[in-house]
Amino acid sequence: MRSLMTPTPQKRLLLFLSGDIFFICLSLYLSFLIHFNFSQAVDYIRLMEPVLPYFLAVKLFFLAVFRGYRMTWRYVGVSDLTNIMAAVMISDLVLMVASFPIPIPEFWHIQFPLEGYVKRIFIVDGVFSLFFIGGMRVAKRVYLEVIRGKKSVRTGKRTLILGAGNTGEMILRDMAKQRFSAFYPVGLLDNDTRKIGVYIHGVKVLGRLGELRTLISRNDIEAVIIAIPSLNHKKLRVLYDSARRAGVKTIKFVPRIYNFERPEINLRALEDIAIEDLIGRQAITVDYEGIRDFLTGRSIMVTGAGGSIGSEIVTQVCSFSPSCLVLFDIDETELHNLGLKLQRLFPELSDRIQYVTGDVRDRGRLDEVFRAYAPRIVFHAAAYKHVPMMESNPKEAVKVNIFGTHALAEAAKNYGVEKFIMISTDKAVRPTSVMGATKRMAEHICRAFQEAGSGKEGGESTRYVSVRFGNVLGSRGSVLPLFLDQLKHGGPLTITHRDMLRYFMTIPEAVSLVLQASTMGGGGEVFVLDMGEPVKILEVAEELVRLQGLEPYKDIEFEFTGLRPGEKLFEEILTAEEGTVASRHEKIFVARNSEKYSLDDLTPILADFDSAVKSLDPDSPEAVRTLLKKYVRHYEK
Fold this sequence. Notes:
Layout: H1 2-5, H2 9-35, H3 44-48, H4 52-65, H5 78-98, H6 119-151, E1 157-162, H7 166-177, E2 183-189, E3 199-200, E4 203-207, H8 212-218, E5 223-226, H9 233-245, E6 250-253, E7 271-272, H10 275-280, H11 288-295, E8 299-303, H12 308-318, E9 324-329, H13 332-345, E10 353-357, H14 363-373, E11 377-380, H15 387-392, H16 394-414, E12 419-425, H17 434-454, E13 463-469, E14 471-473, H18 479-488, E15 493-495, E16 501-502, E17 504-506, H19 507-520, E18 526-529, E19 535-536, H20 537-547, E20 558-560, E21 580-582, E22 588-591, H21 599-614, H22 620-631
Helix pairs in contact: 2-4, 2-6, 4-5, 5-6, 11-19, 12-19, 14-16, 16-17, 16-21, 17-22, 18-20, 21-22
């Protein structure tokens, strides 16, 4: 019995087909009945017999053409019902046309059964057919979401949904599918005055967002869902604080939606609001169609794929369905963890994602990878990035950030990569650290390869661009994880300087702008992302303490430790001495870099660095710094 009741595509097809045959017969019978005013003297069956095969054949054919037998019964939507409507209307139109007289010589003795039929029969038949066939398709969903939903015991938390747009509507639909077991919607809030007072799936839009605290207390609200993905951190923080002060402990929000091929929202996609969302979340608008054209169906490689930036690049690239995605990283554990995440988010891409362990400095390994997978686009995010650590290990910074970039850029040129995008940093501007100076040299390397290929004859050469941005919240080694760890142990929170300023942006937003910049570069540019307004690290720490329900300086102390080696008090996000020019995107600029090296210039420079790196002399780290001062303009140590 269980096997018999288990739904399968074959059983669904048989159900729909048999139901359609029955309803087509019933519709035709009712149309004759209405046409003859329910007269008992008419033999309706005899009238139907000659034309019924035509009605069945034409209608079943067009239902099949319009995918009437491929839709899922449980999730029938507006587009499916539109297809049913089109199939029924076209069917009856074809049958109606066939009822018109056709001039045929009498000696052929041919008579069409439909000829001369009253046109009203076809119109009435179409109405009944649409009602019955469409009703059968939507019946299961109506039962599960409306009839059974109203009968069910609503055990979920009383919930307000902030945002009465498409996202809020999808959240409501999924609540109904889940029988309100987790959340029971009491109402929606929206700033669009045209929506206030209207009902969406039976749930009323109660008022504006500014009335949140009042409506929470008036309706005994236990949970709040923020269904406005475009909110920046300031507006998000206002709503979050209002809900918290009103006593709501469960606050969820809709994160950025990466799978643009399937942009549905459901309750499982909801996340708790993270600290970085309340501090650095910005409203970013990018040209998704342009990014889609750039990435879809392409073979793409991401180095440093397991890192904070690299893994986010991978996640967003997966949303645009590349033909092949090569994830290259030296850390096999991070690759493994990333693989588990991608399998959950993008199971349909599992056969297109390649996990490759390797070192960007290993030219032989790079040759193997480029030969095997032929990537057309390369995102180079592999780098040593921690400023104090690289001050202690300058030779390693040179090996990875300079020689690794050179090896990868050369492989890209040799194997005909179309575009090479290097992730740079604001610390490359007037660098005061080894890390910043080595990343500035990496920018020079990319520009040198671009200059060398720009005059190349015959075919397109690789285009090299660099994208420079500041601190991203929540990345490994950034200030937020450090503060959270210190809070877990009761403080104090350590801050290097009371007046230290930093630009902040969350990782998803920064990477969205990286993808946007990658579509814009013609080659040789250093793009600079507008990271918003700089904020004091001290203010970030104080906000973090308050978000944990504690009082700064009372419950948690602060300790000022002084600037670390290579650290700046103020980050210079733009190249101050040369400036920037605007691009077609409001948050992306192009740095004016007059300083550049050719590949011929780089040969002796790299030879100098190679000698210093390989030297066993105890003074060789200082020799590396001396070389950085020599070849990186404005580098002062």
